[in-house]
Amino acid sequence: MAERSRPKHSFLIAGTHSGCGKTTVSLGLMAAFRARGLRVQPFKVGPDFIDPGLHAQISGTESRNLDGWMLGRSYNTGLFRRLLEGADLGIVEGVMGLFDGYEGGSESGSSAEMAKWLDIPAVLVVDARSMARSAAALVHGFTSFDPALRICGVIFNNIGGPAHLEYLKEALGSTLPGTAVIGGIPREDPIRIPERHLGLVTADEMKLSESYRDRLAGLIERNLDADLLLSLTRYGDATGPAGQATAAEGSGPIIGVARDAAFCFYYPDNFELLRSAGARLRFFSPVAGESIPGECSGLYLGGGYPELFAGAISENSGFLGAVRDLASRGMPIYAECGGLMSLGRYIESTDGKRFPMAGVFPFGTRMLSRRKALGYTEVVLRRECLLGGPGRTIRGHEFHYSEIAGAGEDPGVPLAYELRGRKHESERPEGFQAGSVLASYVHLHWGSCPEAAVSFVEHCARWENGL
Is 296 one of the catalytic residues? Predict the structure, then answer.
């Protein structure tokens, strides 16, 4: 007799606001359920790169972004269902507050919208520091705000101790008897993630040890009722088709991908789409002194923190020289944000020190003490480039503390993009093009336009074949 498969569970970890403890709770639950032997598939709502990297270290499984603006409903639900097929438990970390999205008049882009799309319940994390019965009023507001959303339970963070938790349970029990209290995490027992000016430290910089994972799992097992959480979050049979299966390595052109602590902001979906288009990917580390693999017919330089490793990159003459040589020979090179910075003449630190870079573009970049740009961005191609022809639209996200320097009003190269915000506001040209090189500050998610990945691979194949 065939062994029956284990039931699947899934839920979204939501917060009342940013900074209430969603990430710590999400990581703790991933660690605890992994320690119990469950296969945990993590997800992150929104465009963030950093949390998914931490998810992967804790869960042992690559985390994926779900996004209500960059990606359509069918893409999100298909990806979720496909990846959950190989897991016992799907944990989705929300973004901002539960109902916060990209406009005030609707749920668009919010964690609540995503939970409803995926047909999974939300678990609300409440920062209960200095709160008593008012916490029940807060939870009441969240649970009644949208009747179509299921909030199956509450986790209180930063509680003062067992007596405080009992008070909170009593308050919820008297007013919201149908809302379960999963538990409370004491403020005397924190496990914090370091922060800096660009947000949380990336997973590439902070390797989470086994002892750290054990501490996270212990934090959950001591303070939360994980069995109760599982009983409330059984995942029913999915309706509708699953997403496209993960692509195996093809036999097409080889694309080199810079991937290390400096170049670490990539959407895994982009790699999948490149492979689906036939590409073979070869990863290398400029920070570690490695150069571009010799057999490559294309190059992908992602975003990250090149300013923190500018010295190591600048000293890697093999990498920078290869970039210049291959660009001069017409090899397709696509770069985003940090990758763009490495293609300029230099990176200038906030204290004025300059680190020479590849010099493919006639300008440099300089770091600023304040954030230069943050937000969703839609790219409309205004000319033929590596990603397609005029009129093609691709969605992505900007987040950077640097700007173009030494170029005045004219960057000295053609601009391939028209950028516009979520509501088509503030259109401006961007997308720097120098021969076969295309670079931009925008982190594009090719799930919004898979044809862009196909176009890039086709350009690489033509170069490989001398066309």
Answer: no
